[in-house]
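Re: that backbone. Tokens:
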């Protein structure tokens, strides 16, 4: 049995098809949600069809659909389906595939990727069924919320809604940094307020693909006063004490200092050797880069 899917499906045997409307946009969804829904209702039709106990060839023009369901088929990485924006539909697709396997002898299901808008008969017929949904009143499926937090923010007078993503996390960090910057007058705040030579450098560093995401995250946490340390944890209500645990362990009979970013970077005795190692590493990198740019060469071939 052959079924072609796009935003709807078409079954060659019987020359019929199906479609549905897809809901739950408020929690965020991918642009391939309609293709996922079409594959799901096509599998439902294949199981309900009177002579469905036969192998099924499902033609699809969506490579993203095949890549999405591949993660849970066979010996794959098997990630959490909750993290997928269309996990509610994908779960039903996997259950339908399992249902076909669990029938008396087990049924073979093959997904085949076909090219879009190349005059392929089955794909064109599926597109015609997709056109019918625009002029048909039908209830939407997959409308139940999955308790994914939806965040709202306003930019230039326009309201935006989205679930949390890397882009939204970066935007939230930058907004928090702007709000907190005016309340501080330390060296970091003065550096960020300085015009002409600081923020462009940070922007170039942030866009540099050679810099790891961990290093970028630490930089953003440091300049936005959100570095994970005991002083911030106490201010945010996450713990009661702001004392440095390393200082307490090193000198149990002395009062411990507050564990802030400055204490970690410049004062904590327990971190003295790591700080010196990082300091020397920075100097070695500076000397190496200066040497590459220098034009003066010594007798031994070295440059300064």
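Recovered sequence:
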């Amino acid at each position: 049995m052959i079924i072609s899917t796009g935003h709807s499906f078409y079954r060659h045997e019987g020359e019929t098809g199906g479609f549905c409307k897809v809901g739950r946009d408020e929690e965020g969804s991918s642009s391939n949600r309609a293709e996922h829904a079409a594959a799901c209702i096509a599998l439902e039709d294949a199981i309900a069809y009177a002579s469905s106990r036969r192998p099924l060839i499902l033609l699809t023009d969506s490579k993203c659909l095949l890549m999405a369901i591949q993660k849970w088929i066979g010996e794959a990485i098997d990630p959490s389906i909750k993290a997928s924006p269309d996990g509610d539909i994908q779960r039903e697709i996997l259950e339908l595939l399992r249902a076909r396997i669990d029938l008396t002898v087990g049924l073979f299901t093959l997904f085949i990727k076909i090219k879009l808008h190349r005059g392929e008969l089955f794909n064109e017929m599926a597109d015609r069924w997709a056109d019918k949904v625009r002029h048909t009143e039908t209830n939407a499926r997959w409308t139940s919320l999955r308790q994914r937090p939806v965040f709202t923010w306003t930019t230039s007078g326009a309201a935006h809604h989205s679930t949390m993503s890397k882009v939204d996390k970066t935007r939230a960090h930058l907004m928090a940094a702007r709000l907190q910057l005016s309340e501080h007058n330390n060296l970091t705040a003065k550096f960020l307020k300085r015009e002409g030579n600081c923020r462009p450098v940070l922007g170039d560093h942030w866009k540099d693909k050679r810099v790891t995401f961990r290093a970028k995250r630490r930089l953003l946490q440091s300049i936005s006063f959100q570095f994970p340390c005991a002083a911030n944890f106490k201010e945010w209500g996450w713990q009661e004490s702001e004392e440095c645990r390393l200082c307490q362990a090193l000198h149990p009979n002395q009062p411990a200092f507050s564990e802030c970013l400055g204490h970690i970077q410049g004062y904590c005795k327990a971190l003295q050797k790591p700080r010196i190692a990082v300091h020397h590493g920075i100097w070695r990198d500076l000397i190496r880069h200066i040497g590459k740019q220098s034009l003066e060469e010594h007798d031994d071939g070295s440059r300064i």
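The chain has a mean pLDDT of 76. The two ends are 75 Å apart (CA to CA).
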